[in-house]
Amino acid sequence: MLFDSYKTDGFFDEMFGNGGGDAPRDHYGQIWDRFSVMNDEELQGKKGALDRSFLVNGITFTVYSDNAGTERIFPFDPIPRIIPPSEWETVETGLIQRITALNLFLYDVYHEAKIVKDGIVPMDIIESAEHYRPEFKGLNLPNDVYIHICGTDLVRDDKGDYLVLEDNGRCPSGVSYVLENRAAMKRTFPRLYGNMNVRPVDDYPLQLLQTMRYVAPHGKTDPVCVVLTPGVYNSAYFEHTFLARQMGIELVEGRDLVAVDGHVYMRTTKGLVHVDVIYRRLDDDFLDPTVFRKDSMLGVPGIVEAYRRGNVALCNAIGAGVADDKVTYAYVPDMIRYYLDQDPILNNVPTYLAWREEDRKYILENMESLVVKAANESGGYGMIIGPKATKEEIATFRERVKATPRNYIAQPVVSLSRHPTVCENGKAEGRHVDLRPFVLYGDRVRVLPGGLTRVALRKGSLVVNSSQGGGSKDTWVLRSSLGES
Amino acid sequence: MLSRVADSLYWMSRYIERAGNIARLVEVNMEVLLDLSLEQQGSRESYWYPLLDATALTEKYQALEDESKRPEVPEFLTLSLENPDSIRSCIAQARENARMVRDQISDEMWLELNSLHLFLSSPAAAALWHRDPEDFCTQIIRFSLLFQGITDATIPHDEGWQFIRTGRFLERADKTTRILDIPHRLQSGRGPLPWATVLSSCSARAAYRQLYGGEVTERLATNLLIFSDVFPRSVRFCLRMVDEALHAISGTPRGQYSIEAERLTGSALASLDFAGPDEVEMMGLPAYADQLQTKFNDIGQQVFATYVLLPSEVALQITEQQRLVYAYTSQSQQQ
């Protein structure tokens, strides 16, 4: 059957302890019972039904490298990932701690920069971060929130400890898959889902709307909120429409908005309508051609002026990216100690910064065993995994690190935890996974129970990004007892 | 409603109606070809050219560079991606527009449209077309009717729906005149004109029989398809629907107008209200159809100018004072 020849191969396995395929961890007991009795036909039937429902529902992403803008479904694996309540509690408090520190840091960086004066984070690092926007120093934002929506990437190491891989504080995507995956799983495995006492995820859109309303300019009580999308060819376009629809607000493109006299309006068939809060799924660079990239066709000329004057709020704030720079990342544990006087609950992956001479030496000498990443790239681009890289790739990265040390960091290869995943031969095999929980920072911090579990579908691969052969799983956080939400 | 959204809903609807009507056109033509004598069958291909003329596609067809690879006309009209108005292209464009307003339409609408799009992009569509072209056309026609039914039954009948109707009925009025035009383009003198076929392709056989009995004449068929006040594919009926939708959007009472598109529609409608087959015969059907088509074009352009284009131009050159005026007028429009 499905788990017959399953091997954990010495990795930390989410579902099985060291015993292998017939000794699931306690919280996976019901999953094992349900899946191990399934014959091949039933399993393929369920899997086919899931894939078809994603395709006809248009739950797809667009592949960038392809001019035709090919749409693909995000491959989905039917075996859900289970997180027991106590484990989740640690993750949740750790995430709340982290986003709180990050917002305090951003406020500080754009005001007095005490953390620099006190010698915790060097000014060089802040000033050289690509997404640092010194021109917004001194600007006060509603309720001092910079990162309203955060999609932190977590991994588990060989001991099963959760580590933060990166903080995505600009436009993290993927939450629509969490909601759609859940809907599909509830349809496909209604009884199993019902029996396991899983915490629901479907109030996320409402919470997102509350988060947006919380930062309405001038304390407006009934603000007009919109989602700003780069347009139909963006890889996450489905998600933009999904969120706008779920929240019941307009999905706008740059050309739908116009800034007049420091206010932003949307163009409607009845004339201009004032816009107060914008959840923008567009990087800073593309927001306003009069301020940032002049060739941006996606933005709104004058929107930054309206933002400066406090007449429109942007989620996330302009310049929030300085906090998710991969070099700044290395200082987040220090920030937590500095601002909150607490020890970090979730640890970073140990990180070497190439701009420090000692670290650089170590990186150059040990590149074959490290993961080397460009500081400002995401989506699995601009990185190499030392043990899997060719000699040429390593040589190229050596030169790059020497030429622009500020741009590179390195980390030991974390042997990501694995999770049973249905493979083409109809058997379950271990595949590496990570976890992207979604955190909302409004009147209080809310963490969506679970998040997006991404799976590296290729055997042995550590890259989980959808653009590079990754898939996803539904993530079930269990309630600790009946009645608790 | 966002201007861009209004525009997308309008075009989504037009493209779906257009796909259905192209299927109707192809269907009529195939029927006519079946009745040709054996000598005439030698020049089958030439019987398809009038259809290109009727849909203003002759130039696009001839512009296809490589003559040897040029698809045959029926293929060009149905599955070719080189023809922006082929059935497959229409559905792709309707879907692209629907994707842009995915948050504004019902899941049921999206599912139908997306499924058809996926089907037309698959080898199964080409296989069906080659095996049974008539069935292919029937399925497209059925889809467009189904989609319109789903639309009417699953979304609020508010402003967006009125833009959908405007697109649907303007397109239908236009294509009804083009279908009517085919028999004349096929040249008289090659036998009796296929009016009965024209009626069926407009789903008008039963309506005709009830009104006029079994014998089909050009005069009565024209009367039904242009002037009927109750048949939902007649030009007059369609224009009345456009008129209703435009007035529902602007809030102006019927019989008056506040925008140019309303004035043009009202005037075209009035001329049909007070005309009949005599006027058509006097002018000749092709010329009569032609002047109607020009009016439809003008109406479409004016809808765009008022609801989609103008707000952006206004917005770009707006001054504080104009803004106040604008805010004031938009408030009064809403009341």
Strand and helix layout:
The complex is a heterodimer of chains A (about 475) and B (about 325).
Chain A lengths: L28 H8 L3 H17 L3 E3 L8 E3 L2 E8 L1 H25 L4 H4 L5 H5 L21 E3 L1 E4 L5 E5 L8 H14 L1 H6 L8 H11 L10 E4 L8 H11 L2 E3 L4 E4 L2 E6 L2 E4 L2 E4 L3 H4 L15 H6 L4 E3 L16 H9 L6 E2 L3 E2 L3 H10 L3 E5 L8 E3 L5 H13 L4 E5 L5 E5 L5 E9 L1 E4 L3 E3 L4 E5 L13 E8 L8
Parallel strand pairs in A: 3-24, 6-14, 7-8, 7-12, 12-13
Antiparallel strand pairs in A: 1-2, 4-21, 5-6, 9-10, 10-11, 15-18, 16-17, 16-18, 19-20, 20-23, 21-22, 23-24
Helix pairs in contact in A: 2-6, 3-12, 8-9
Chain B lengths: L2 H32 L3 H4 L7 H6 L3 H6 L9 H6 L8 H14 L6 H14 L2 H9 L1 H22 L4 H27 L9 H7 L3 H8 L5 H10 L7 H16 L9 H14 L3 H7 L1 H33 L2 H15 L1
What is the H/E string of chain B? HHHHHHHHHHHHHHHHHH
User: Main β-sheet of chain B: number of strands, strand sense, barrel status?
Assistant: none
Q: What is CATH's topology name of the domain at 203-315 in chain A?
A: Rossmann fold
Q: How large a portion of the residues of chain A is in β-strands, by DSSP E? A: 15-25%
- Helix count of chain B, per DSSP? 18
| CATH class category name of the domain at 203-315 in chain A | Alpha Beta
Structural class of the secondary structure composition of chain B? Answer: mainly alpha
